[in-house]
Design goal:
The chain is of the alpha+beta class and 175 residues long. The protein has helices at residues 2-24, 28-37, 96-114, 120-125, 127-143; strands at 57-64, 75-76, 148-155, 165-169.
Length: 175
């Protein structure tokens, strides 16, 4: 009787594991399966797969603007993209949260501009723009510049041969 109980337990756990793996697969068919099979809410969904792979690194930068309108060199602000991290950071890395917040704000701003096609006046009034402007203003104020503009630049990962492209460029601001 004990062997039957163990076999049933193993079969249930194996089925649960198989349903969890199937629910992670991309495609509408698998997502429908997950929704139907998850009537008790026991199948986790981690979203391992995406239809759009991340092929760029985003950088929040600012640059000084002189009185004659001439812009200076870009200075990156915020947590760095790379750097030495301990191996445990693959599992636990709370230091990535500020970086994630900046990336989320930057992508929201790019979405407002490119996808939703908002008017420039509306973009300048949206919360992501205001938060990023204030974040960059702190650095510009510390550098003592009379005016600055910020931008969201994209690089192509570790491919440093390709230049950074400007995804978003703000108006000129006083820090």
């Amino acid at each position: 009787m004990r062997a039957i109980g163990e076999a049933v337990g193993i079969a249930v756990l194996a089925g649960w594991f198989a349903a969890t793996v199937a629910g992670q697969l991309p495609g509408e068919r698998w997502q429908q399966f997950r929704r139907r099979a998850n009537f008790l809410g026991l199948l986790p969904y981690w979203g391992f797969f995406t239809s759009r792979l991340a092929t760029k690194d985003y950088h929040l930068c600012w640059r000084p603007v002189a009185a004659d309108g001439q812009a200076g060199d870009w200075t990156e602000v915020g947590p760095g993209l790379r750097g030495e991290r301990p191996p445990a950071s693959a599992f636990w890395h709370p230091g990535r949260r500020p970086r994630k917040a900046l990336v989320d704000l930057a992508l929201a701003l790019v979405t407002f501009q490119e996808v939703q096609k908002l008017e420039p006046a509306l973009i300048r009034a949206c919360p992501p723009y205001l938060a990023l402007r204030d974040y960059c203003a702190r650095s510009a104020r510390a550098a003592g510049v009379p005016a600055f503009e910020f931008g969201i630049l994209a690089s192509h990962g570790r491919d440093s041969a390709r230049p950074r492209s400007v995804y978003f460029l703000s108006d000129c601001h006083v820090p």
